[in-house]
Amino acid sequence: MQKEYNKLVRDRIPEMIEANGATCQVTAMDEAEYQQTLHTKLVEEALEVAAAKQRGELIKELADLQEVVSALQALYQIDPAEVQAVQEQRRNERGAFERRLRLISVQIPDESYTN
Predict the structure, then answer these.
(1) Any idea where the domains of the chain sit in the sequence?
(2) Highest taxon of the source (predicted)?
């Protein structure tokens, strides 16, 4: 039986598959394909984080999400310290999520409405 995946996998997955007695076909992606696939993987992992029900599962999914974020940072040559600095700046400007606020609505006065 052959099962099709056609998706980005971690580097050691093929050898783990073969260690279990199966064979697999893999190919290396060019930069454009890798970039697009990482973006798709980011969404996939974010959905898995959102679906996690237990703390241990959440930790595992957050680790997987962080792995994709790290790969994107490497691909775009972004220093993690740069991201952290912008995160801190945005936190200082806009706040964090500590107060658990839900914005329900905004009433905009007619005179301040711009089109």
Answers:
(1) 1-79
(2) Bacteria
